[in-house]
Amino acid sequence: MAQRRLRVLPPMPFVGRRNATSSPSAPSTAPTPARPSRRTIVDSAIYLDGIRVASPTSLADTFRALHDTPGGMAWIGLYRPSQAEIHSLAEEFDLHELAVEDAIAAHQRPKLERYDDTLFVVLRAADYLDVPEEVAFGELHLFVGPNFVITVRHSESPDLSHVRRRMEADPELLAMGTQAVLFAIIDTVVDEYAPVVAGLANDIDEIETQVFDSLDANVSRRIYELSSEVIDFQRAIHPLATVVDNLQAGAEKYHVNEELERNLRDVADHLTVVNERVDGFRSMLRDILTVNATLVSERQNARMQALSELSHQQGEDTKRISAWAAILFAPTLIASIYGMNFVDIPELHWALGYPFAVLLMVALGLGLYFWFRRRNWL
Predict the structure, then answer these.
(1) What is the pLDDT along the chain (378 residues), one digit of tens a residue?
(2) In the chain, which ranges are E strands?
(3) What is the CA radius of gyration of the chain?
(4) What order of strands is seen across the sheet that includes strand 134-144?
(5) What is the pTM of this model?
(6) Which end of the chain is more exposed for a tag (fewer CB within 10 A), N or C?
(7) Cα separation of the two ends of the chain
(8) Rounded CA separation 159/49 (Å)
(9) Which of 126, 124, 134, 189 is nearest to 163 (CA)?
(10) Cα–Cα distance list, 250 to 96, 179, 184, 246, 247 (Å)
(11) How far apart are CA 199 and CA 269, in angstroms?
(12) Helix axes 178-191, 219-249, angle to 10 degrees
């Protein structure tokens, strides 16, 4: 499997923008909110009783439209805004400086913080990439006040356009206010965890088959890399459970609509299921790694045993060859002595010399044969 690592797109460099003036002759002393590019503002709308009544194209226009719509709600979606743009939002909606700092820095864990009547929420979206078998993570910051919702994305995911369309199609739900938007976004993020869980489960099934059906030396590395993916996923979803629990705990205090509260409980149930499955994945991978280590050890022991048996067989063959060589060497030695061209060999003119030499060779050969047999060389 391709190496799997945490993939979070970094924030774009923050570039300040020059403040506009009302006219060359009478410059305004108050700074004008920065005008973001089309890419920065994904969508901006003013809603009244769940109906979109304005679609401003800049932050300044959004601020004016909200002021001109008593009882209205602003939903501003931003993608990698500049530091100046975030500060203009902070000035308009009185956002806390610590929350603004976190939104600028990004790379936060999921959390929920309340600053007076404004909530600051950090969510981590996840997307399963099938080809490299990786989990890519996105980061989403939300500022939720009495009459505004600001979403700040620092990565391509999650795509909130379908959330906005779904809520605009249900004006009654959207009329419940900013809490309805917040819960809908959390619900979407949690729902998008399901394909990630399915992808990881499929990878684990493939690894189980690979462990038992093949001798692939890379399976241990694949288990380790998938374990890293699961750990990264746990870090993204475990803190979110605390966020949802805190929202549930404050539902009564902050007069959350009963229908929204039921929706939040449903989100909490889905998140619990995801957490339990991911925790189970980690245990399964740990067990698979143990089984794989055992199988690798057994295969190594089998190879060592086969080598040992081969070495033993080679040793036995060597002993047999050496024994027969020694048996054949003795008669050869005697024959070579009597084959020397010397006149004064004692037995050379003896009538029984030849039978004696043959008998000596046979006796010596038999003696060596029985001696080697006794030592199990033959």
Answers:
(1) 333 333 333 333 333 333 333 333 333 333 444 444 446 888 999 999 999 999 998 999 999 999 999 999 999 999 988 889 999 999 999 999 999 998 888 788 899 999 988 999 999 999 888 777 788 898 999 999 999 999 999 888 888 899 999 999 999 999 999 999 999 999 999 999 999 999 999 988 888 888 877 666 677 788 888 888 899 999 888 999 999 988 888 877 777 788 888 888 999 999 999 999 999 998 888 888 888 777 777 777 777 888 888 887 888 888 888 888 887 887 887 777 777 766 777 777 777 777 877 888 888 888 888 887 888 777
(2) 41-48, 51-54, 73-79, 111-115, 118-129, 134-144, 148-153
(3) 42
(4) 51-54, 41-48, 73-79, 148-153, 134-144, 118-129, 111-115
(5) 0.69
(6) C
(7) 55
(8) 25
(9) 189
(10) 20, 12, 17, 6, 5
(11) 21
(12) 160
Cβ count within 10 A of residue 299: 11
| 32 closest CA partner among 5, 13, 11, 59 | 59
Burial class (CB in 10 A: 0-12, 13-18, 19+), 113: middle
8 Å CB contact between 142 and 151: yes
Calpha distance 82→16 (Å, rounded): 7
Amino acid at 358: V
Helix (H, G, I), strand (E, B) or coil at 91: helix
C-alpha closest to that of 132 among 211, 55, 229 = 229
Spatial CA neighbour of 181 closest among 85, 264, 63? 264
Query: Collapsing DSSP states into helix, strand and coil, what is residue 32?
Result: coil
Phi, psi of 10 (to 5 degrees): -75, 155
Give CA–CA dist 167/72, Å, rounded: 16
Tokens for 133? Answer: 């078998």
Distance CA 45, CA 52 (A): 6
Q: Which two tokens stand for residue 79?
A: 């993608």
Residue type, 299: R
H/E segment holding residue 56:
none
In degrees rounded to 5, what are phi and psi of residue 12?
-70, 150
Tokens of 349: 């003119």
CA distance 36 to 15: 11
CA pair distance 20, 17, nearest whole angstrom: 9
Amino acid letter, residue 46: I
Backbone angles phi, psi at 262, to 5 degrees: -65, -40
